[in-house]
Amino acid sequence: MEDQIIVALYWSRDQRALGESQKKYGSLCFRLSENILASREDAEECVSDTWLRAWDTMPPQRPESLRAYLARICRNLSLDRWRARRARKRGAGLEVLLEELEDCAAAPSAEEVSESREIARCIDRWLAGLPEGDRTAFLRRYWFGLSVKELARQEACAPQQMAQRLYRLRQGLRRALEEEGIVL
Fold first, then answer.
1. CA angle 58-80-115, nearest 5°?
2. Domain limits at 80?
3. Count of domains observed in the chain
4. At a CB cut-off of 8 Å and minimum separation 6, what does 183 contact?
5. What pTM was estimated for this model as a whole?
6. By the 8 A CB rule, do 43 and 34 touch?
7. Could you read off the pLDDT of 65-103 as tens digits, one per residue?
8. Cα–Cα distance, 50 to 70 (Å, whole number)
9. How far is CA 61 from CA 7, 23, 25, 52, 174, in A?
10. What is the DSSP letter of 111?
11. Domain check: are 60 and 110 in the same one?
12. 112: which DSSP letter?
């Protein structure tokens, strides 16, 4: 079913929207959540919560890309759950990703929220300037949370090669942020 039709179902409060969302984007959301949480049960809960959050936010939201909208909801719910778990005990999956990116840019404080928009625009420009393969690898690692081993398997290369490629990409991001005066 086309995304626009699914969104229209949400807007008309037709519960078929939930089933169609699950059918079309369930596996994507599950993989995304499981990569962050490293727990099948927690991922299943986050995916279920994704459909509820989509139901609660449409209307008034009318997303241009239902795939991106649902993935963002799922990712945010998964990150919230990961943070809650981490508050109780130290996690491993997402913490590694954040540590890798920590050298590029620190998270903004409450006073720096407007600066975070500039950081996002700079990262968007940097990503747009990358070759498609590098952009895809970077997003799969740092947005979808794929392991280096899984990325290497997808790209048919050794994990060490993928780790080196990701290192060079992070260094490129750091240079771009330095050139913009965002990171000193």
1. 85
2. 3-88
3. 2
4. 104, 105, 174, 177
5. 0.65
6. yes
7. 999 999 999 999 999 998 888 766 554 556 666 666 666
8. 7
9. 9, 21, 18, 14, 34
10. G
11. no
12. G
